Amino acid sequence: MPSLIDLTLEGRKVGQHGPWPRVVVDAPVWTFAASELAHGRWSLLGLWGEPATVHMAIMDGQTAEIAVVSLDCPDRTFPSVGRHHPPALRLERTIDDLFGLSAQGSPDARPWLDHDRWGVRFPLGDRIDALPTAAAYRFLAADGDGLHQIAVGPVHAGIIEPGHFRFTASGETVVRLEQRLGYVHKGIDGLMTGASLERGAQLAGRTSGDSTVAYAYAFSRAAEAALDLVVPDRAVFLRALLAELERLANHLGDIGAICNDASFTLMHAHCGVLRESVLRAAGAAFGHRLMRDIIVPGGVSRDIGDGGAETIQATLDNIRLRFPALVELYDNTASLQDRTVDTGTLKPPLARQYAAGGYVGRASGRSFDARRTLAYPPYDSLRFDVPVLSEGDVNARVWIRIREVEQCVSLIDQILSRLPEGPTRKDVPLGGEVREGMAIVEGFRGDVLVWLRLRNGLIERCHMRDPSWFQWPLLEAVIENNIVADFPLCNKSFNCSYSGHDL
Amino acid sequence: MRKLLFESVFRQPLTERAPLPDDAAVAELATALGQAARRRLGRSLSIREVDAGSCNGCELEIHALNNAYYDVERFGLRFVASPRHADVLMVTGPVTKNMREALERTYHAMPNPKWVVAVGDCARNGGCFAGSYAVVGGVSEVVPVDLHIPGCPPAPTAMLQGLLALLERADAGAVTP
């Protein structure tokens, strides 16, 4: 079996790409990589375009080696990866929408983010005017006696992001769910081009609001990888503190919200109170409840405020006091368990195939956690468990979150007790003419990947891949044969990002 | 469960005192509500929220309005599932081109009188996404806006202040002949 390193020898290595190698390969090597993905030897981490190039980030699951392979496509086509490896399909459709590079041999050539509303086609490639009349989007067919369709969205009943779900049901049972996303596409990749690092960090922090810390963290680490910049120790620890507070707040909110979708509002109310306490502590310590714009290239933009550490500590003490009773309540309420156990089951092979990150992957036997597998500082020196289950149902995804709440509390404790003194920010050098960097950071939802190329200190191209890209398609799979009424429950247990996906 | 419920009988409620209505918002609304609010609504407004392209940060804080600390329903403010039931359309985000039609249709599905509250910095003028090929701009480019609540995202208290100002004006309008 060829290792990832062997593959990288097959191509022309690009200088100034950190910390993992990037190689320019030819079409046969590109296709070989696709078939290795299909055989499950490697995992697809990302697939993105440039006006005349496509890039693919892959990871060897055994060794945690990572590489980026690039293919020049002067004739505006490239061999389809999705043809061999379905997780790449939506990414390829996006590359076609944005850059006009088409995946040859792809079984699904429909547009994805482009709803024919932008007035242009291929906005980031060779722009042309949009088609005069929008073609209707073709949903996939489902045939059978007595099937009916339920169309939901883009505006949903609750306070949530927009997206369209097309259910085909037989009575109460879902036969097929097809998602149609892209409604909140803001063109962030386009806005990044030509932006300064400062503006880039601002945009990154507004890609998915619930992961604002994770995105700013990944963006900053990618920029620092490109510039060979080492941030001060205190900033390294403060970043992890911010990331864990974000994870804690989101998991607490999710646990309550999942139970709420099973009409168990008591959990929702109590978890909501704990979530609010974390946001208030974050606001007191860092001046912003969601901790936006704190992580910047070079370090952090502000230090923890006076009394901030004590406020956070008091919040943790309260969670330690109150959370166990809620866990017990969840575990001992049969009517709630009846809804969550065996509902929306994601089989481990599918989680592995899609390299699903976060609680979606870890509830289905995939142990990947960027903090552990890639062990970026300060996580290489902190003690924590990565909980993994294999049942893959809504219940397992709740339990992963419960265990991660406990881990978060312990991690924040460790960080606060070991917070080094010293500066919190370093000046960011302009760097050489061209510098490239990539980073993967574990957000609450899973691994956020950021790749960028800087030219004379400005962003020439930046691509951000939300963990939802590899989770949304799995939601389509797990809802099959469940009842329509369980969809909100399944959906909330995934809690994929629309904005992070649509960009 | 019984223990948790029992405790809540004896514990002080977490709900906090209402903030004063935001002065700036009251001034902004004074003109907006003059005519329309003459119809009696009572001290109650139903709100339909639409994310027209936000990063979901604003949604998180709107959600927080429903937690025990802010408890927005005690003011008669209720989030409803259908625009047909709504008096207020609360819109977040820069309006994306892909969401423009959905926003317009939601607005037109609401009965009169109705108000539009734009939440967050993006909703004013597109914020940091202004100028993108995929973004229309602020909410007022698509539907008429009566009140804007700034912030990225606005804290729940700021949203509460804005909504209370709206409620007060709607109420005042209702009793003035």
UniProtKB/TrEMBL annotation, chain A:
Keyword Oxidoreductase among record annotations: yes
Domain NADH:ubiquinone oxidoreductase 30kDa subunit: 68-124
Entry superkingdom: Bacteria
InterPro entries: ComplexI_49kDa-like, NADH_Q_OxRdtase_suD, NADH_quin_OxRdtase_su_C/D-like, NADH_UbQ_OxRdtase_30kDa_su, NiFe-Hase_large
One Pfam family this sequence matches: Complex1_49kDa
Keyword tags: NAD, Oxidoreductase
NADH-quinone oxidoreductase subunit D domain segment(s): 274-427
Molecular functions per Gene Ontology: NAD binding; NADH dehydrogenase (ubiquinone) activity; oxidoreductase activity, acting on NAD(P)H; quinone binding
The name this protein goes by in its record: Hydrogenase expression protein HypE
TrEMBL record, chain B:
InterPro entries, per the entry: Complex_I_20kDa-like (IPR052375), NADH_UbQ_OxRdtase-like_20kDa (IPR006137)
Classification via Gene3D superfamilies: 3.40.50.12280
Keywords linked to the UniProt accession: 4Fe-4S, Cell membrane, Iron, Iron-sulfur, Membrane, Metal-binding
One Pfam assignment: Oxidored_q6
Cofactor(s) essential for the protein: [4Fe-4S] cluster
Signal peptide positions (record): none
SUPFAM superfamilies: HydA/Nqo6-like
GO molecular function, one term: 4 iron, 4 sulfur cluster binding
Domain NADH:ubiquinone oxidoreductase-like 20kDa subunit residues, every copy: 55-166
Assigned protein family: Belongs to the complex I 20 kDa subunit family.
Name of the protein in question: Hydrogenase
